[in-house]
Design a protein that fits this description.
By secondary structure, the chain is of the alpha/beta class. Strand 9, helix 10 and strand 10 form a beta-alpha-beta unit. The protein starts with a strand and ends with a helix. Helix content is about 30%, strand content about 20%. It has two domains: about 220 residues, Rossmann fold, CATH 3.40.50; about 200 residues, FAD/NAD(P)-binding domain (3-Layer(bba) Sandwich), CATH 3.50.50. Helix 1 crosses helix 12. The protein binds NADP nicotinamide-adenine-dinucleotide phosphate. NADP nicotinamide-adenine-dinucleotide phosphate binds next to helix 7.
Length: about 425
């Protein structure tokens, strides 16, 4: 029997477990470790709460977790409770699927002023991530700005603009729903340092902005090149740009506005002890398509600024790390140590992109390590012994089911769950 440890229970971790289970057909035990007793990582804490159809992919992960060769081991922080060297002693291979949970920084003056939050923090706050439950984003001013032109920027702008009614059926946590419901924000400016042809927003997500109950998207037609210039664009991007162009024709008859401000590079954040405005420099594209400052600056009022400019992975002691992810070659970090998903390739692609990624790494593992091999490492048995010596109490999949049931039981009508946002609440459900 082979023993594999996958560190991280988000999409990349679960697809890799599914692939290893298939590759070894019953001749491997696969443990999916997570620092929390609740699985699914990005699906639980990152995917927008009003995108329940995307979250439904967790049903597939449930099947993986319920299969005989796979176990979920929660409440274990690798790098703190157990080292990578120890895991490599206990398991035949270790696969890091730790995602990219940290915000990249803008690196401009004023970024640390109160009122400026990273999208990981803001998204974590409305999605019930225990580390961001107390974020208390400033929603009392009329203006907010979101920096970045990717799908996360769209998520943040949409969540800031929806009515309470529009959150029906979502699993946005109660504290965020109440705060957003009494928010004073009327204008959300989405700042892109490049132009409409350089957005990283996908059509479905962009299209949603055109159908909001109380908010209307606003674009400046002068920011767009002539319409013929859209022809050579890749079809998905062309569709997004067409949608953006269409926003110009929408009636401006709603109380809230989501303003797309292109060619606007943040250079400073200012305010008297808290964010009040973001200073942006107008840009032009150079011949390589990069944003070049023109020297002309202007102010965008904003007492809440959400930076949505990409994420980085958490380093783990003794694992080579560079540029926000683990140093790897096609997923291989070192002998018997691999990375998958965002920890491998950085924060790009959709949830589904992690499937081929996980399968590819599982194939590599299986190619170098046939089933029924001679090496008998103790796997979970050894890990649990070590954790017990250290006073760490791991949780299992049945524990998660108890938490899940309890969260479903306290849900608002029409909502699938009301998440617990304090680890103490998870453990009290488990009677610990
Ligand atoms: P992203 O797609 O990489 O977008 C990051 C944005 O930040 C880009 O517009 C980038 O502009 C901008 N940016 C980077 N550094 C900047 C700086 N210093 N100043 C100003 N702007 C800066 O990242 P993301 O939005 O965080 O999304 C991460 C991944 O998750 C993506 O693959 C995304 O599609 C996916 N996702 C999918 C969904 C969905 O399918 N519903 C939802 C959320 C996220 P430049 O292009 O100029 O660098």
């Amino acid at each position: 029997m082979r023993h594999f440890a996958i560190v991280g229970s988000g999409p990349a971790g679960f697809y890799t477990a599914e692939a290893l289970e298939k590759a070894y057909g019953g001749e491997a035990r696969i443990d999916i470790l997570d620092r929390f007793p609740v699985p699914y990582g990005l699906i639980r804490f990152g995917v927008a709460p009003d995108h329940q159809s995307l979250k439904a992919v967790s049903k597939r992960y449930d099947k993986v977790a319920e299969s005989t060769g796979v176990d979920f081991i929660g409440n274990v922080t690798v790098g703190r409770d157990v080292s990578i060297a120890e895991l490599l002693d206990l398991y035949d291979a270790v696969i890091l699927a730790t995602g990219a949970p940290h915000d990249r920084k803008l690196g401009i003056p004023g970024e640390d002023l109160p009122g400026v939050v990273g999208s990981a923090e803001f998204v974590g706050w409305y999605n019930g991530h225990p580390e961001f439950a107390d974020l208390d984003p400033f929603l009392n001013g009329p203006h907010a700005a979101v920096v970045g032109n990717g799908n996360v920027a769209l998520d943040c702008a949409r969540i800031l603009s929806k009515t309470r009614h529009e959150f029906e059926g979502s699993d946005i946590v109660g504290h965020a729903l109440d705060a957003l419901d009494s928010s004073a924000i009327r204008t959300v400016t989405i700042l892109g340092r490049r132009g409409p042809h350089q957005i990283a927003m996908t059509p479905k997500e962009l299209g949603e902005l055109g159908h909001l109950e109380a908010a209307v998207p606003v674009v400046e037609p002068g920011d767009f090149p002539p319409v013929e210039a859209d022809d050579p664009l890749e079809p998905g991007l062309r569709k997004s740009v067409t949608l953006l162009r269409g926003f110009a024709a929408l009636p401006q008859d709603k109380p809230k506005r989501i303003v797309f401000d292109f060619f606007a590079k943040p250079v400073a954040i200012e305010g008297d002890g808290k964010a009040e405005r973001i200073i942006v420099e107008k840009t032009m594209l150079d011949d390589k398509g990069a944003a070049r400052g023109t020297g002309e600056t202007y102010d965008v009022p904003a007492s809440l600024i959400v930076t949505a400019i990409g994420y980085s992975t958490s380093p783990i002691p003794d694992v080579p790390f560079e540029g926000g992810k683990f140093v790897n070659q096609n997923g291989r970090i070192a002998d018997r140590l691999y990375a998958v998903g965002w920890a491998r390739r950085g924060p790009s692609g959709t949830i589904g992109t992690n499937r081929p990624d996980g399968y590819e790494v599982a194939d590599q593992v299986a190619a170098g390590m046939p089933g029924g091999g001679s090496a008998e490492r103790p796997g979970a048995e050894g890990l649990k012994r070590l954790l017990c010596e250290r006073g760490v109490m791991p949780t299992d999949y049945d524990d998660w089911r108890k938490i899940e049931e309890s969260e479903a039981g306290r849900a608002r009508p029409g909502s699938p769950r009301e998440k617990f946002v304090r680890p103490s609440d998870w453990f009290s459900v488990l009677g610990r």
